[in-house]
Amino acid sequence: MRLLPCGDRALLAEFGELEQALGAYSRWSTSAPAGIIEFVPAARTVLVRLDPAVMGLGAAEQWLLAHPPLQPGALPSTGLVTLPLVYDGDDLTIVSEVWGCSRDAVGDLHGATEWVCAFIGFAPGFSYLVPTAGSVLPPVPRRATSRPRVPTGAVGLAAEYCGIYPRASPGGWQVIGRTPAVMWDAGRAFPALVTPGTRVRFEAVRA
Amino acid sequence: MTAVRVIDSGPLALVQDLGRPAFATLGVSASGAFDRAAHRLANRLVGNPDDAAAVECLLGGLRLAMPPGTWFTITGAWSDAVLVLDDGARRAIEPHTAMRVNAAAELQLGQVSHGLRSTVALRGGLAVPSVLGSRSRDTLAGLGPAPLRAGDVLPLGPEPASPVPVADLVPVDPPTEGVVELGVRPGPRHDWFTAAAHRLLTETEWITSARSDRTGVRLDGPALSREPELVGVELASEGMLRGSIQISPDGAPTVLGPDHPVTGGYPVIAVVVDDSLDLLAQLRPGQPVRLRRATGRR
User: Fold this and answer.
1) CA-CA distance, B122 to B119, in Å (whole number)?
2) A75-113: per-residue pLDDT in tens?
3) Residue B74 in contact with residue B109, Cβ under 8 Å?
4) Which residue(s) pair with A11 in the sheet?
5) Which residues contact B271 (CB under 8 A, 6 or more apart)?
């Protein structure tokens, strides 16, 4: 772990791998002292936001170093959700070429994989899912040009990630299908259906 | 229930409070008042708690129909504001002063002479529905109350416990028209940039771009170059802060505002310190900006 400077009210903890960043997030977020506003997990990093009136940068650094991340693989799960998915996306052919399989097999391979939410970014409730068993599927390149509008519930792939658009927005991920599940509803007690640590399975359904 | 009615929103009028600070793990930014000091001062002047919801008005033009008995104040950007009474009489409004509307009247914010964003606080606060514990409009995520439109009726909350303070003069200078100096400290990717880029960062008189909003304030000036071995390298998305100075691939800096994306993939060379953040809200397009290395431990 490397602690990088980030102005006068945050530190950025950087890790070599996603699994380590997730391990740190899951350990720190369950035992945060007063003065740490929140931890923001991402692909290789955890941003630690401080209230400088309560905890200084030096004290925060000491606390982080005294609480090393959990061993990779020891990430506690925060539940399992199964999402129905219609595999009829516009980019199935491109993904099948990258994966070296038939169009129909894209759904089989994707649906046979168990995923876990690593972090949320891009938009409220937009979860970055990775395979729980590590990245076994070949990484998928983003589209060369973004689509101006990807519909709500579209399921896309980019690099080693699978993501679900919580609302219609521009987007550059390769779309393989759509789910009717409501990923984000700000009016719910728990607005995001999937949060960091949630395991996700997809169940193929017909349109 | 008392309520004010929007007659004209001007270019952009938003409901803001102090935001929703701890939902980044759900992909939701803190948002909240851009000029936090102006927001707090406005609320204190009318006896509201600091986090009561108020109107953040960009470039004046706001017109509100005010019921009798309403206390209000205007802070932040200075504009030639007036209260127009039923008989057509016009009373000029001093900034940073709590005023009571005795008979129904219309509040009009005219041209802004200093700064960019005015805060209009009303006693009781705006009691519009909240989302994730806040009434702030997040313009990037589309969360919270929609931008104000003519005809909107904004209910006011109950009378706060504390009275309207008797202090009737708060000496606050208007937002400056000249060079604005912002303190910065190193960002996580400061070592991605050349020594020349670091010199340019603090020695350039940057110009506030017109392509600035609550998501970020762009600064026009020289391009800041990456170290040669990092040109074209993609950074995995990482957490961002209000005040993070992202450098896009063309070398242009953007200082992130309250509605910034939670994560981003452009390297952050430096971060504007907390004490300077409110100044960002009042930067006018074309206004010069200098970045100064902040010292001190905190």
Assistant:
1) 10
2) 566 789 999 999 999 999 999 999 999 999 999 999 999
3) yes
4) A5, A48
5) A6, A7, A8, A10, B184, B185, B186, B187, B241, B243, B244, B245
User: If contacts are CB pairs under 8 Å, which of residues 136-165 in chain A contact chain B?
Assistant: none
- Residue B211 DSSP label: S
Dihedrals phi, psi of A95, to nearest 5 degrees: -65, -40
Burial class (CB in 10 A: 0-12, 13-18, 19+), A111: middle
CA-to-CA distance for B197 and B208, rounded, in angstroms?
18
Between chain A and chain B, how many beta carbons pairs sit less than 8 Å apart? 122
Asked if the C-beta of B27 comes within 8 angstroms of chain A's C-beta atoms, the answer is yes
The ipTM assigned to this model is 0.93
Dist CA B114 CA B79 (whole Å): 7
H-assigned helices in B207-276: none
Q: Which position has the token pair 């303190």? A: B183
The model's pLDDT over A138-178, given as tens digits with 9 standing for 90+, comes to 999 888 888 989 999 999 999 889 999 999 988 889 999 99
Are B10 and B60 a contacting pair, CB within 8 Å?
A: yes
